Amino acid sequence: MNKTERLLIPARERHTEIVVVNSRFIASIAPAFSVEAARDFIARIRTVHPDATHHVPAFIIGHGASITEHCSDDGEPQGTAGRPALAVLKGSGLGDAVVVVTRYFGGTKLGTGGLVRAYTDAVKSVLEGLPLAEKVPTQTVMLVLPYPLFERVRMLITEQGGQMLDENFAENITLTLQFTIQKLPGFQDALREVSKGSLQVNVIGSNPAAIFPVSETL
User: Fold this and answer.
1) Which structural domain range is residue 96 located in?
2) How far apart are CA 65 and CA 176, in angstroms?
């Protein structure tokens, strides 16, 4: 499955800064699963930088054909800030994402073209190397195993792309794990092989749209 077919989102909040002719452009990005969440993030960034000249927001809620998008120039000349920021965000393939570019004016006007380049580059800077997650159907499972198999099973969890949610060490070890629906069968097969058929997982929950980290970045 390529990136355009996956429901990719920012894995976490991130901030970067560039300087253009003495003006500081601080780009902040975060996951947001509703318009309200996006607006809350924008408001928070405003409180973090109360003395900034502009806070230019852009967000995309949802994925594919079912999205809500918004941008604003926040006092910059029309079309020089919000639309360039949104264009870069859209081009990234991300959904459920909000970005704010905070500008501290450095005393020199950049002109229309300079502003477009500055806001474009600011969003590109925060996207470059951004850790990603995806919205995927997952299953949560419980596994009880003896101590001698723990290290080998822990390696299997990593190899099969699982997440360890909880560990309980008593007479045996009880693990709570999360796998994407696509990855779980492979883990079950590997588990049977390493335990000679003595171990199996019990499915205890499912989530049709869980947030699951992925290894690649933008």
Assistant:
1) 3-128
2) 35
